[in-house]
Amino acid sequence: MRGRAAGARHRDRGLRVRPGRAPWILLLPAFAGAAFLVLPLAGLLVRAPWPDMARRVTEPEVLSALWLSLWTATAATVLSLLLGVPLAWLLARTEFPGRRIVRALVTVPLVVPPVVGGVALLFVLGRNGLLGQYLHAWFGIGIPFTPAAVVLAQTFVAMPFLVVGVEGALRAADRRYEEAAATLGAGRATVFARVTLPAVLPGVGAGAVLCWARALGEFGATVTFAGNFPGTTRTMPLAVYTAMQSDPEAALVLSLLLLGVSLAVLAALREKWAFVR
Amino acid sequence: MRERSAVRAHALVAAAALLLSATSCGAEDGRRLTVFAAASLTDVFTELAGKFEEQNPGTEVVLNFAGSSELAAQINTGAPADVFAAADTATMAQVVAGEGLDTDWAAEHGENGVVFAANTLRIAVPPDNPAEVGELADLADEDTLVALCAEEVPCGAATAAATRAAGLDIVPDTYEEDVRAVLTKVELGEVDAGLVYATDVVAAGERAIGIEFAQAAEAVNDYPVAVVSTADEPALAAAWVDLVRSGSGAEVLAAAGFEVP
Predict the structure, then answer these.
(1) Which residues form the ABC transmembrane type-1 domain (chain A) (predicted)?
(2) Which of B70, B151, B152, B153 to mutate to test binding with chain A, by most A CBs within 10 Å of its CB?
(3) Cα-flanking dihedrals φ and ψ of residue B224, to 5°?
(4) Using 50, 70 and 90 to split pLDDT, how confident is the model at B183?
(5) Is A127–B173 a contact, with Cβ atoms under 8 angstroms apart?
């Protein structure tokens, strides 16, 4: 190692920037950037009513919002995996006319404001929506104002993160293994299940974590499409917003709780799945 | 998303100040009346501003609409208002306690401003009234999809007062963050009924029907108006208040769904 380091130093002799010392023109904005991201969160910690904390986070309304958030985000992630992984495979591994357009369309929820997604869902799946009116007339099913609407809103907003991540992993994966399996007589479904999927599992895991985090934080589409009722559709972000209307301190407590829980879950996943980096 | 932070209030003050300085060259002889008014007065005051400018040639009316409490905060941090019209007496009280009213005007008309209009709750239903709602008690029916304002926002407090007066325990299907969101859910037919203000029903036109109910009398929102102590044009400001309280002012207010005392 030492010889290699010496060699590197030797090669760098002609450079103006000496190795090991970052130039201030990068350091300064880097510190400013880190401070900008960390300070608001630190502000939450400083302003939090710590003596009251334990009592406030165990209030039934808070716990029901947290539980609702956790299970809906998980359900949205499962739904995204079931639909999104095959979609990513379709985009990465097949050729069909209009594939580029389809890819652009399915990533639209990444760029539109979530509230627009909520409006769109309401106009399609609402009681008077394009499809929703038939669900309501034929089966008596109304989706808005139910936890199902929360899951759908979250899936709409979060699934593209998974699709983009998995598609990238599929494109980066070495296809020779798949070709070898195919030449040995495996069908396309078998190749996918036994070769492709195991190879891109880290990418799927990373995409799922990102998808879950995005679903957990979903606000705009949820409040527009699913409504806001304690225990049914009032997830943590909605609870934070509602509390902010009258009791900023309660909003602070809820924000900290959401922050703590999501960090804990992400850290635990990272521990467990070493491949998620 | 909306944030009600002090930072935003300051930004608004700065923006309002910029706007005022930018428009100051518009008035021919420099007479300019600045009116801060609750957002629900947008249509009414915009119409009255046209009348006022006609009656007082060479005068320009600058209107600043926002949530009442936001406006009160702006006035109390030094925003240049001549007149303040609030959607409830509590916010007017904040200005009375803060920046204060014009002493001469207040001595003559009232220390807490004068109430010039009132807004009451209505049951709003979609035009086809799918759940056949006729009175407040129908909203307590479990099969009726209901949207109400969250209790944390002003219209939610009014809703709670009315339902309490009726002795009803109405459990809605969603608590919306403001009265317009309730109205939208009704207009789209996503809920069978919601509680909104009479002015909202008028604004909805044919997209919703308003149903009066007796207990609404328990939750009347009074709209006070006053000349603020920082007024540069106290005489013009007093004339504005007179116009709002005049017959033609009452006409415009009533057409928008307000009750006029």
Answers:
(1) 66-269
(2) B152
(3) -95, 150
(4) very high
(5) no
